[in-house]
Amino acid sequence: MNKHHESTGPADEQQITLRGPAELADALPYLMGFHPSDSVVMVALHGGRGRFGGRLRLGIPQSPKEWGPVADQLAECLISGSERRGSRPDAIVIFLCQDPVGGESAGQTMERLKPLAQRLRTACGALDVPVLEALCISDGRYWSYCCPDGRCCPTEGNPLALPGTTVMAAAATYAGIQVRGSLRDMEERLAPWQSTAVPAQCHALDTAGATLVSRILDSEGRGEVAKETLDLARVLMARLRQAPSAVPSVTDRSDDHLISHDEAAAVILGLQDRETRDKAAEWMEGAEADSALRLWRALARRCVGPYVEHSAAPLTLAGWVSWSTGDEPGARVALGLALRADPDYTFAQLLHQACNEGLDPETLRRCLRGEVGEGAEGVEDGGVLNGGTKDSGVPGDGIRNSGVWGGGTRGVRREGRSRLRAEHRPRPRPARRTPPDTKGGRATPGSVRPGTSVARRGTRDAGRRGQRGTRSGR
After folding, report:
1. Pairing between strand 2-3 and 16-17?
2. What is the rounded end-to-end Cα distance, in angstroms, of the chain?
3. What is the structure's pLDDT at 112?
4. Separation CA 461–CA 471 (nearest Å)
5. Strand 141-144 vs strand 131-138: parallel, antiparallel, or unpaired?
6. pLDDT of residue 170
7. What was the pLDDT predicted at 282?
8. Where do the DSSP E strands lie in 70-210?
9. Each residue's pLDDT tens digit, 140-163
């Protein structure tokens, strides 16, 4: 089958013929741009030679009770999305990627996931699209759920090829296609701190909230806070720009040390205002883009404890800069995490769907530059794109957050840059007071610890009360 990489790399078409499960398993990271961990991946095939088309990723639901409904939704989403993009798939390839958990072996992981593979195959078949291959990848080995021949697909599985030793790896290197490590690694770069510094950062956020919320709710003070936020962000970007980049883990640690708790808190709280966030989104290209992306990642890591929901703003900005600079896999990860932190964050919803549907980010770049006048197409009034995907209802990673390709976006008429900011304000809703999930030391997004002060909740609740608070920026 022919492989056309549609998300990264140069525009020149590269055709690679893949033969059998081994080469399919090796191609997966290059298809996605990263190694998908704990994931269901479905890839559409088109034509007699099996050209790769749309692809979809979803975190594997923990409860087997969810596998049936999720399988039906994934099959429907990939097939209908492919139809909207051009043509119905002629076949589908399925990957189940999960390393052993709880002391089980890789073979036991494969057996545990076999019912999920069968439900996915049945769901696709019910829509008259056959599954050409279904693979399980676990702990450096792969198994085929479709091949009954023990000579090529033994019960103990086959080892994956060593990285960089296959024809696919050589072709990807020649084409400039990069694999950015595992999905888990990419998410860790954006995850809230889990260190002894968390209490100090929480205290700084509490203090900043007590000072800034009342000013932001004041019509005059709001503009002053916006200016202070953007000025401080520029100072931090310049500081990060002077620090040399290294491997991601080293760069992230260096960036964390270059930003104080109070500085991070002030910018995080300031970015909860919609107009301030939109101004910050203008740092999307050229020399500013790299330092802005480093800043947004660093700020997302500082949204700790009950402030996890506040990470939606810096995560969305990180996703936007990644998409604008051509890193679509990185953009999907950041935007998916933004929606996990706050599923109702409109700007993340818009960008995530537009990125997944393969739209050109230049349209939004022009809008942010002020180059688009009346009659131009842009983001939709009310902050909702027509068509697209729906949330699967699976805790932690819905279909909307999964990296679905396809949908039915239709732009609408806008009147210049000012109307880019005309997103609707969320309807009032009670503040969530779910106790934090202490597993792994990480709070559940949107949770509030017992004894949380009013000042701490103010930036989240003001917009929900219908005021012009900092959480109106969705």
Report:
1. antiparallel
2. 43
3. 95
4. 7
5. antiparallel
6. 60
7. 93
8. 91-97, 131-138, 141-144, 158-159
9. 899 999 988 888 888 899 898 766
And the tokens for 129? Answer: 């699209």
Q: Bridge-partner residues for 138, per DSSP? A: 141
> What are the beta bridge partners of residue 58?
40
| Residue 44: other Cβ atoms inside 10 A | 27
* CA proximity to 159, closest of 176, 175, 141: 141
Say if residues 442 and 194 touch (Cβ distance below 8 Å).
yes
Tally the C-alpha atoms within 13 A of residue 10's C-alpha that lie toward its C-beta. 10
The pLDDT score that the predictor gives to residue 359 is: 80
Burial (CB < 10 A; 0-12, 13-18, 19+), residue 288, is middle
**For the chain, how many residues are written?**
474
Under DSSP, the state recorded for 278 is H
Question: pLDDT exceeding 70 applies to what percent of the chain?
Answer: 70
DSSP states of 351-415 = HHHHHHTT--THHHHHHHHT---EEEEESPGGG--SS-------TT--GGGTT--------EEEE
When the pLDDT of each residue in the chain is averaged and rounded to a whole number, the result is: 75
- Residue in 68, 61, 131 with CA at minimum distance from that of residue 98: 61
Spans of the chain, pLDDT less than 70: 1-20, 162-180, 371-474
SS3 46: strand
Q: In this structure, what token pair is assigned to residue 189?
A: 């770069």
Residue 57 phi/psi, 5-degree rounding, is -130, 140
Instruction: Give the whole-angstrom CA distance, residue 445 versus residue 440.
Output: 14
CA nearest to 328, candidates 297, 357, 348: 357
Q: What share of the chain is helix, strand, coil (3-state, %, to 5)?
A: 50, 10, 40
> What's the pLDDT score for residue 394?
30
